[in-house]
Specification:
The protein is mainly beta. The protein has a single domain, classed as Sandwich (Tumour Suppressor Smad4). It is built from two helices and twelve strands. A seven-stranded mixed sheet has the order 2-12-1-11-10-7-8, with no helix packed on it. Strands 4-3-5-6-9 form a five-stranded mixed sheet, with no helix packed on it.
Length: 185
């Protein structure tokens, strides 16, 4: 038996990359308690909580406008699948959480897309999931953005409103039913 045969197979780990931006970061240092540029392990059965309360949240945002617990992320495996995902839940009673184009009220939750922008107040967070195989834990890798994430993503500029006065959104409106318009109006 060679020395390689006795070694355990190396398991890849799911990593959640999160890039944070706030326009007042340089003045107010609200991200000073976050550990940037170093991967951190989180047990799979723990919830990753982001907010102001250091007794409850592992990821602290030092800002009085942030809720004690702003949002949480739960790592899970889809039923009858080997795919791992994250579920994001808004834990703030006062502030809506926007995940890409979806607005979450208090205690609303959705699956976190593989790449998305999370916004609340003036905060912008680019979240990107790097797939892995480990069932015991996942990793977080935090980064700090110097320019607004929404600006960096080069979102298309708004379309001019046509003479009819009806503007069509660039993004499909999920969960909204179409509006019926009488052609004589």
């Amino acid at each position: 038996m060679t020395s390689l045969e006795g070694i355990e197979t190396e398991e890849t780990v799911t990593c959640l990359h999160m890039t944070f931006y706030h326009p007042c970061q340089e003045k107010k240092m609200m991200f000073r308690c976050l550990n940037f540029c170093k991967r951190e392990q989180v047990r799979a059965d723990e919830m990753a909580k982001f907010g102001r309360d250091s007794n409850v949240c592992h990821y602290n945002l030092m800002d009085t406008r942030v809720s004690r617990i702003q949002f949480s992320l739960q790592f899970y495996r889809k039923l009858n699948s080997s795919e791992f995902c994250f579920e994001i839940k808004n834990m703030s009673k006062k502030t809506k959480l926007i995940v890409d184009q979806t607005e979450l009220g208090y205690l609303n939750k959705i699956d976190l897309p593989w790449k998305c922008i999370i916004c609340f107040g003036d905060y912008q967070i680019l979240a990107e999931v790097q797939e892995g195989e480990s069932v015991d834990y996942f990793e977080t890798h935090l980064h700090l953005a110097e320019v607004p994430i929404l600006q960096e993503r080069c979102l298309p500029s708004p379309q001019p409103v046509p003479e009819t006065g009806i503007s069509y959104s660039l993004f499909p409106s999920e969960g909204k039913s179409p509006i019926e318009v009488d052609e004589n109006e």
